[in-house]
Amino acid sequence: MKTEYDHIVVGGGSAGCAVAARLAEQPGARVCVIEAGPSDADLRVKVPFGLVHLLGSDRRNWKRQTVPMAAAGERRVSVPRGRMLGGSGSINSMVWFRGTRADFDAWQVPGWDSDTVWAAFDAVEARMTPARLPHPHPLSEAFGAVFAANDPGAPPTPERQSAGVFHTNMRNGARWSAADGFLRPSGAEVLTGAEVDHVLFDGLRATGVALRDGRKILARGGVVLSAGSIESPMILMRSGIGPGADLRAAGIDVRLDAPGVGANLHDHPGFGLHFKGRGSGYGLTLAQLPAWAVAPLQWLALRSGRLSSNTVEAGAFYGLGDSDVPEIQTHFLPFLMGWQGRAIIWGAGYFADVCLCQPRSRGALRIGADRYAPLIDLNLFGDDRDLDMMVAAVARLRAVLDRADFGARRAPEAFPGRNITGDALRETIRTRAGTAYHPVGTVALGGPLGPTGAVKGVQNLWVADASVMPRITSANTNAPSMMIGWQIGGHVAAAATRKAA
Ligand SMILES: Cc1cc2nc3c(=O)[nH]c(=O)nc-3n(C[C@H](O)[C@H](O)[C@H](O)COP(=O)(O)OP(=O)(O)OC[C@H]3O[C@@H](n4cnc5c(N)ncnc54)[C@H](O)[C@@H]3O)c2cc1C
């Protein structure tokens, strides 16, 4: 390993891999990606169903948690984040959505309008080749068919266009992450097992990074933070860039008082209905044991079978009332999932959730006495209207599920139970809802960042990951994170070319 490069990218996740590819395109560029976690060389990463095991891994998941959140019943909720090459994109369900054009136009940041962003998605998709999940469960097909079948003559609405079996970033039945699509072909040098503590500066110019083990690595052209929505603001704050009073209280010298760092944290709140019944979806039953036993061979030989399921096989977007913009996203999983603390329980069934596409609640991420333990406050349901919409969305989802042609596989609602409605449902959602695992917004474009992703007030330092979204996209955030890496990587490369000229 060298100790000086042209550019350092901190974090080899969904965005960081795209940044590295863009930087390494420059002739002769020396680019180093520094990743805290291990490589992604593990069969559980490649096998789509392996994500169920990875979510329990201490080595490959940061396993963050929120602080107790007042409006959500003083509860902590889990904030899983991938900790290896590919980042959260190595433990995610690989569902592929750009978001809507209106999402990006609403950012109102120069260079991030929907036309520009759409062209960047085209470039990203040329490498990631998303496609319809090849072997969905019949329940997943039946769920999507509700939207097509009930109103065949109606004009296309957002929910009708995107309802059904999801597109995923898999290739040949295996996970195809940003590490596969961008990093490995790039030729960038990769350092794994190396956790960045803070950015090094000469005055206000970033010159490299210091690792937690004390090593220093320098970058002549600059540093790009792609450590994700939780860790990128933490690295900034440990480097003295953040809310001044918090930094001083944590014993950190203030380099730049930037109150926007860590602010604006938000995520898609999500609440799931669990259905359990004999002969229903995938699950652990005596009758299904033979199928589970042959599943590894089936995947290895044919790349099919239940292990080729990404779990989140299907879903839909819909508005409430007369709205024709997507307000709610449902993820449909043809699996029985536990609702009493354990992910896997005996029985068969399926699961469908409601997630708010555009939550109004905003929280914050702060640094405390332990500078490596982020204080994550999503402030779930801090705005009451989010809870109102969730209650209405569950009623709508139940009606959709009633119309699905599940045949003999239909199962009764085991949690929260069909009799739970109105105020009881509202209280259940408030005290049981989690998120879709899409935290964003903590180092926003137009806030601490200029439109190219450069940190305002210092030189040679950029942020490129999901944290830069001023407002969350209306669907899953992996594809947008890669697009952000691609775009900001391009800006950093262009700045380097200008300097060299
Ligand atoms: C369980 C789960 C399921 C999901 N399912 C989907 C889905 O199906 N579809 C979808 O679109 N989105 C999904 N998402 C969300 C999506 O994966 C993320 O939005 C996206 O991966 C974020 O990309 P990122 O580049 O911002 O961060 P990440 O991909 O998380 O990358 C950050 C990287 O930085 C590294 N890092 C952090 N701190 C340091 C440090 N100090 N030093 C060095 N390296 C560091 C991390 O280890 C990680 O590799 C899911 C997320 C999770 C957790």
Mean of the pLDDT scores? Answer: 95
Query: What is the number of helical segments per DSSP (H or I, 4+ residues)?
Result: 14
CATH class of the largest domain: Alpha Beta
Helical content band: 25-40%
Strand content: 15-25%
Q: What's the alpha carbon Rg, rounded to whole Å?
A: 22 Å
Shape: globular
Bound molecules: flavin-adenine dinucleotide
Q: Which class do the helix and strand fractions yield?
A: alpha+beta
Largest sheet: 8 strands, antiparallel
Whole-number total of structural domains: 2
Unreliable stretches: 155-159
Number of strands: 25
N-to-C span: 28 Å
Looking at this structure, what is the CATH superfamily of the largest domain? Answer: FAD/NAD(P)-binding domain
CATH topology of the largest domain: FAD/NAD(P)-binding domain
CATH architecture of the largest domain: 3-Layer(bba) Sandwich
Topology at a glance:
Blueprint: E1 4-10, H1 14-24, E2 31-34, H2 43-46, H3 51-54, E3 64-65, E4 78-79, H4 101-105, H5 114-128, E5 131-132, H6 138-149, H7 158-162, E6 164-165, E7 167-168, E8 170-171, E9 174-175, H8 178-186, E10 189-191, E11 196-202, E12 205-211, E13 216-225, H9 228-238, E14 241-242, H10 244-249, E15 256-257, E16 269-276, E17 283-284, H11 289-302, E18 314-318, E19 328-333, E20 347-356, E21 364-366, E22 375-377, H12 384-403, E23 413-415, H13 422-432, E24 434-435, E25 461-463, H14 478-500
Parallel strand pairs: 1-2, 1-13, 2-10, 13-25, 14-15
Antiparallel strand pairs: 3-4, 5-7, 6-18, 8-9, 11-12, 12-13, 16-20, 16-23, 16-24, 17-20, 18-19, 19-20, 21-22
This protein binds flavin-adenine dinucleotide.
Flavin-adenine dinucleotide is lined by residues 10-16, 34-37, 55, 80-83, 87-89, 91-95, 195-196, 226-229, 231, 235, 312, 437-438, 465-466, 476-479, 481.
